[in-house]
User: Which sequence fits this backbone?
Protein backbone atom coordinates (compact mmCIF):
# COMPACT_ATOMS: atom_id res chain seq x y z
CA UNK A 1 0.00 0.00 0.00
CA UNK A 2 1.22 3.48 -0.88
CA UNK A 3 0.53 6.08 1.80
CA UNK A 4 1.27 9.80 1.94
CA UNK A 5 1.56 11.39 5.38
CA UNK A 6 0.43 14.98 4.84
CA UNK A 7 0.30 18.25 6.75
CA UNK A 8 -0.54 21.83 5.80
CA UNK A 9 -0.04 25.25 7.32
CA UNK A 10 -2.61 27.98 6.65
CA UNK A 11 -3.32 31.68 7.14
CA UNK A 12 -6.08 30.91 9.64
CA UNK A 13 -8.38 28.26 11.03
CA UNK A 14 -11.30 28.33 8.58
CA UNK A 15 -11.17 28.01 4.81
CA UNK A 16 -14.79 29.21 4.66
CA UNK A 17 -13.53 32.66 5.76
CA UNK A 18 -11.17 32.82 2.80
CA UNK A 19 -8.06 31.54 4.55
CA UNK A 20 -5.46 29.91 2.33
CA UNK A 21 -2.80 27.20 2.39
CA UNK A 22 0.75 28.55 2.84
CA UNK A 23 2.72 25.30 3.15
CA UNK A 24 2.29 21.65 2.21
CA UNK A 25 4.50 18.83 3.48
CA UNK A 26 4.23 15.17 2.47
CA UNK A 27 6.17 12.00 3.32
CA UNK A 28 5.72 8.84 1.25
CA UNK A 29 5.40 5.38 2.80
CA UNK A 30 5.29 2.17 0.79
CA UNK A 31 4.08 -0.91 2.67
CA UNK A 32 4.65 0.98 5.93
CA UNK A 33 8.23 1.85 5.06
CA UNK A 34 9.52 5.34 4.20
CA UNK A 35 10.71 5.57 0.62
CA UNK A 36 12.70 8.76 1.13
CA UNK A 37 10.42 10.68 -1.24
CA UNK A 38 8.90 13.90 0.09
CA UNK A 39 6.93 16.84 -1.27
CA UNK A 40 7.40 20.26 0.31
CA UNK A 41 6.28 23.63 -0.99
CA UNK A 42 5.73 27.09 0.44
CA UNK A 43 2.84 28.95 -1.21
CA UNK A 44 2.04 32.64 -1.60
CA UNK A 45 -1.48 32.96 -0.10
CA UNK A 46 -2.20 36.40 -1.59
CA UNK A 47 -3.82 37.48 1.67
CA UNK A 48 -2.97 38.43 5.25
CA UNK A 49 -2.60 35.97 8.13
CA UNK A 50 -5.27 35.90 10.81
CA UNK A 51 -4.19 36.96 14.29
CA UNK A 52 -2.15 34.18 15.91
CA UNK A 53 -1.69 32.06 12.79
CA UNK A 54 1.58 33.73 11.82
CA UNK A 55 3.12 33.15 15.24
CA UNK A 56 2.32 29.43 15.10
CA UNK A 57 4.34 28.87 11.93
CA UNK A 58 6.79 31.76 12.01
CA UNK A 59 6.03 32.40 8.34
CA UNK A 60 5.64 35.95 7.09
CA UNK A 61 4.10 37.50 4.00
CA UNK A 62 7.53 38.91 3.21
CA UNK A 63 9.00 35.39 3.16
CA UNK A 64 6.11 34.05 1.07
CA UNK A 65 6.00 36.95 -1.40
CA UNK A 66 8.22 35.27 -3.98
CA UNK A 67 6.83 31.76 -3.49
CA UNK A 68 4.61 30.12 -6.13
CA UNK A 69 0.83 30.31 -6.08
CA UNK A 70 -1.18 27.16 -5.41
CA UNK A 71 -2.11 27.01 -9.09
CA UNK A 72 1.59 26.86 -9.93
CA UNK A 73 2.24 23.74 -7.83
CA UNK A 74 -1.13 21.97 -8.04
CA UNK A 75 -0.23 19.54 -10.81
CA UNK A 76 3.01 18.52 -9.12
CA UNK A 77 1.17 18.05 -5.83
CA UNK A 78 -1.63 15.99 -7.35
CA UNK A 79 0.86 13.79 -9.20
CA UNK A 80 2.64 13.09 -5.91
CA UNK A 81 -0.50 12.07 -3.98
CA UNK A 82 -2.61 10.56 -6.78
CA UNK A 83 -3.95 7.12 -5.89
CA UNK A 84 -2.47 7.05 -2.39
CA UNK A 85 -4.03 6.81 1.04
CA UNK A 86 -3.46 10.14 2.80
CA UNK A 87 -2.63 9.92 6.50
CA UNK A 88 -3.61 13.24 8.09
CA UNK A 89 -4.01 14.32 11.72
CA UNK A 90 -7.46 15.93 11.96
CA UNK A 91 -8.07 15.22 8.30
CA UNK A 92 -11.19 17.37 7.97
CA UNK A 93 -9.09 20.51 8.50
CA UNK A 94 -6.43 19.84 5.86
CA UNK A 95 -8.83 18.27 3.36
CA UNK A 96 -11.20 21.22 3.70
CA UNK A 97 -8.42 23.66 2.85
CA UNK A 98 -7.05 21.60 -0.03
CA UNK A 99 -10.50 21.05 -1.55
CA UNK A 100 -11.13 24.80 -1.28
CA UNK A 101 -7.85 25.54 -3.08
CA UNK A 102 -8.81 23.15 -5.89
CA UNK A 103 -12.29 24.67 -6.12
CA UNK A 104 -10.76 28.13 -6.61
CA UNK A 105 -9.20 26.83 -9.82
CA UNK A 106 -12.62 26.35 -11.39
CA UNK A 107 -13.03 22.66 -10.77
CA UNK A 108 -10.84 21.57 -13.67
CA UNK A 109 -8.83 19.30 -11.35
CA UNK A 110 -11.88 17.77 -9.68
CA UNK A 111 -11.96 16.98 -5.98
CA UNK A 112 -9.00 15.61 -4.05
CA UNK A 113 -11.27 13.03 -2.41
CA UNK A 114 -11.86 11.53 -5.86
CA UNK A 115 -8.12 10.88 -6.26
CA UNK A 116 -7.17 9.56 -2.82
CA UNK A 117 -8.49 7.79 0.24
CA UNK A 118 -8.03 9.36 3.66
CA UNK A 119 -7.09 7.95 7.04
CA UNK A 120 -7.50 10.34 9.99
CA UNK A 121 -4.74 9.54 12.48
CA UNK A 122 -6.52 11.66 15.10
CA UNK A 123 -9.46 9.25 15.01
CA UNK A 124 -7.07 6.31 15.25
CA UNK A 125 -5.46 7.91 18.32
CA UNK A 126 -8.82 8.65 19.93
CA UNK A 127 -9.84 5.01 19.55
CA UNK A 128 -6.60 3.84 21.15
CA UNK A 129 -6.44 6.53 23.84
CA UNK A 130 -10.04 7.58 24.57
CA UNK A 131 -10.42 10.59 26.84
CA UNK A 132 -6.76 11.58 26.55
CA UNK A 133 -5.03 14.44 24.74
CA UNK A 134 -4.21 13.28 21.24
CA UNK A 135 -2.48 16.28 19.68
CA UNK A 136 0.67 15.55 17.69
CA UNK A 137 2.86 16.81 20.55
CA UNK A 138 0.96 14.70 23.10
CA UNK A 139 1.28 11.59 20.95
CA UNK A 140 4.99 12.19 20.38
CA UNK A 141 5.50 12.28 24.14
CA UNK A 142 3.29 9.24 24.77
CA UNK A 143 4.85 7.12 22.03
CA UNK A 144 8.46 8.14 22.55
CA UNK A 145 8.86 10.12 19.32
CA UNK A 146 11.54 12.80 19.76
CA UNK A 147 10.04 16.18 18.85
CA UNK A 148 12.41 18.38 20.84
CA UNK A 149 13.38 20.19 17.63
CA UNK A 150 9.77 21.22 16.94
CA UNK A 151 9.86 24.86 18.06
CA UNK A 152 7.36 25.99 15.42
CA UNK A 153 4.75 24.27 13.29
CA UNK A 154 6.13 23.33 9.87
CA UNK A 155 4.34 21.15 7.34
CA UNK A 156 7.21 18.86 6.37
CA UNK A 157 8.59 18.46 9.89
CA UNK A 158 5.09 17.75 11.22
CA UNK A 159 4.50 15.21 8.44
CA UNK A 160 7.77 13.48 9.36
CA UNK A 161 6.77 13.37 13.03
CA UNK A 162 3.28 12.17 12.16
CA UNK A 163 4.78 9.36 10.07
CA UNK A 164 6.58 8.10 13.17
CA UNK A 165 3.49 8.54 15.33
CA UNK A 166 1.27 6.75 12.81
CA UNK A 167 3.65 3.79 12.50
CA UNK A 168 3.78 3.51 16.29
CA UNK A 169 0.00 3.76 16.63
CA UNK A 170 -0.56 1.00 14.10
CA UNK A 171 2.49 -1.12 14.88
CA UNK A 172 0.33 -4.10 15.85
CA UNK A 173 -0.63 -4.60 12.20
CA UNK A 174 2.80 -6.06 11.60
CA UNK A 175 1.93 -8.88 13.97
CA UNK A 176 -1.06 -10.03 11.90
CA UNK A 177 0.53 -10.28 8.51
CA UNK A 178 0.81 -6.70 7.31
CA UNK A 179 4.55 -6.31 7.81
CA UNK A 180 6.49 -5.33 4.72
CA UNK A 181 9.35 -7.41 3.29
CA UNK A 182 12.94 -6.41 3.90
CA UNK A 183 13.83 -3.19 2.04
CA UNK A 184 16.09 -3.13 -0.96
CA UNK A 185 19.64 -1.90 -0.24
CA UNK A 186 18.87 1.54 -1.67
CA UNK A 187 15.92 1.96 0.69
CA UNK A 188 17.83 1.23 3.88
CA UNK A 189 19.01 4.80 4.50
CA UNK A 190 15.51 6.21 4.07
CA UNK A 191 13.96 3.54 6.25
CA UNK A 192 16.34 4.37 9.09
CA UNK A 193 14.70 7.79 9.49
CA UNK A 194 11.51 6.36 10.87
CA UNK A 195 10.52 3.67 13.32
CA UNK A 196 8.54 0.73 12.06
CA UNK A 197 6.89 -1.94 14.10
CA UNK A 198 10.02 -2.91 16.02
CA UNK A 199 10.34 -1.86 19.63
CA UNK A 200 13.22 0.18 20.93
CA UNK A 201 14.47 3.76 21.08
CA UNK A 202 13.18 6.05 18.38
CA UNK A 203 15.70 8.04 16.33
CA UNK A 204 15.45 11.76 15.77
CA UNK A 205 13.96 12.89 12.49
CA UNK A 206 16.83 14.03 10.29
CA UNK A 207 16.43 17.69 9.42
CA UNK A 208 18.02 18.70 6.13
CA UNK A 209 20.34 21.71 5.83
CA UNK A 210 17.87 23.70 3.73
CA UNK A 211 15.13 23.04 6.28
CA UNK A 212 17.41 24.34 9.06
CA UNK A 213 18.11 27.44 7.00
CA UNK A 214 14.41 28.09 6.48
CA UNK A 215 13.79 27.52 10.19
CA UNK A 216 16.51 30.05 11.05
CA UNK A 217 14.92 32.54 8.66
CA UNK A 218 11.59 32.10 10.42
CA UNK A 219 13.14 32.72 13.82
CA UNK A 220 14.90 35.83 12.55
CA UNK A 221 11.62 37.17 11.16
CA UNK A 222 9.93 36.66 14.55
CA UNK A 223 12.93 38.17 16.33
CA UNK A 224 12.66 41.32 14.22
CA UNK A 225 8.99 41.67 15.10
CA UNK A 226 9.19 40.77 18.79
CA UNK A 227 12.65 42.08 19.64
CA UNK A 228 13.78 38.80 21.24
CA UNK A 229 12.88 35.14 21.52
CA UNK A 230 12.46 33.09 24.70
CA UNK A 231 15.13 30.61 23.64
CA UNK A 232 17.65 33.40 22.90
CA UNK A 233 18.38 33.47 26.62
CA UNK A 234 19.13 29.77 26.73
Assistant:
Amino acid sequence: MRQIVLDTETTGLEWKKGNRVVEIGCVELQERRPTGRTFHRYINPQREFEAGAQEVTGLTLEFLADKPLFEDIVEEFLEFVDGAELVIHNAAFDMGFLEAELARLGGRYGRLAERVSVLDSLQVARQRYPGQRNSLDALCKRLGVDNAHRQLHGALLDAQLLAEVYLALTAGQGEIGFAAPEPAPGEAAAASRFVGAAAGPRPRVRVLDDELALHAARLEAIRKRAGTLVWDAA
Notes: Confidence is low (pLDDT under 50) at residues 173-204.
